[in-house]
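Support request, please re-run this one:
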Amino acid sequence: MRKEVRIVVADDHRMVRKAWELLLAERDDFKVVGQAANGAEVLQVLQETRADIVLMDLDMPVMNGIEATDQIRNCYPWIKVIALTMQKESAYIKRFFAAGASGFLTKNASEDELLDAVQQVLAGQRYLSKEVSEVLSSSLLAPTSDDARSRLGGLSEREVEIVKLIAAGNTTSQIADKLSVSIKTVESHRRNIFKKLEVKNVAQMISKSKERII
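Re-run finished. Output below.
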């Protein structure tokens, strides 16, 4: 009899969590032992139940997936974290693995690919989906500039995009519509931007960003 794999699913959309739970329930050796709508809830769930795998979205309110993964590595180093996200920018991928992740899948992944990823990370390997591998390959081939990264204040490409949309006068709701993400995701990005730029409000953010990216 194979060991039961205990899985926590983290995503800020309830229907997404439910869909993955139903898919995983079709396997006798997989059991979803918890769900979470943000990184803080993931940590709370892990305090209350034993888990082997966390399927982690990256863009979540309160605490994003990268921050949660870093804390999981420190508190529960035996738990394997696999990204299951729409994000596929090279900066996100690198930050996620630097935080201690074991695998990276986009939400376009098939059922077979998800199962393969779980099996590989449990065996102590890292897993990158083909789609993500192609993104990283392109990133490695593209010229990079330390000066350019410095001017951006450490912001990701998506965060830069959001800064520009805010500076152009778009509301949070309008930005969410334009980027096809949730309002909570935009708010999470904005908090990260404030933290990276060391500002407390939109006016300060725009002023500090003006010479760098706008």
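The chain is about 55% helix and 15% strand. The chain has two domains: 5-138, 146-210.
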